[in-house]
Specification:
With 225 residues, this protein is of the alpha/beta class. The chain has two domains: 151 residues, SPOUT methyltransferase, trefoil knot domain (Alpha/beta knot, 3-Layer(aba) Sandwich); 55 residues, Trp Operon Repressor, Chain A (Orthogonal Bundle), CATH 1.10.1270. Helix content is 28%, strand content 19%. It has a five-stranded parallel beta sheet, with helices on one face. The chain has a two-stranded antiparallel ribbon with strand order 3-4. α3 links the parallel β5 and β6. The longest helix is centred in the C-terminal third of the chain and has 19 residues. The radius of gyration is 22 Å and the shape is elongated.
Amino acid sequence: MRIDIVSLLPELIRSPFEASIVKRAQTKGLAEVHLHDLREFGIGKHKQVDDYAFGGGAGMVMKPEPLFECIEGLTAQRTYDAVIYTSPDGKTFDQPMANRMSDYRNVLIVCGHYKGIDQRVRDTLITHEISIGDYVLSGGELAAAVIADALIRLIPGVLNDETSALTDSFQDNLLAPPVYTRPAEFRGLKVPEILTSGNTPAIEQWRADQALARTRDRRPDLLGE
């Protein structure tokens, strides 16, 4: 998978792609992440990328010219399965969406700033508008990093144990059950006996029951309750 991210502040999200699982995926050749500085496409000697909104009002709007030049330059080089704009009014990003998009070969993410990007860019070049939650960030970079991380970790071979992702929270609309590690007793607090029993079917049933109970208690909306 190749992910291109267009941003006014690429340095803001460089570090997440230079460490941990995402870095390992790139080292293995399973994923590529490329950051593109939109200011390189800015207008005039001051590299202008924003202007006042028609009709007045507070806040600036990202201009269409730099975005068109940058995005069209990238799409001329390869076919993207998705050209994503990170926006509070986009479709909410969730695990089923991540699962579907993890099969994509090429993804382009456009990070917004200020009051957003000129609507003509959204109408013409954007194929997916995605929000990571009902709140507003100062820019789309952190949302782009979240989306990229969620997709890359699902690529076969990225995780040491490929079954790990299948038991994450939100798979099958359930939260993950409680987990424990050694020691079996710490400060008088004991691991549930079932987990040390060696009875695999019983353990799996316990985990399923715990996942359902935790979801019902904390996120009943996932169960439609």
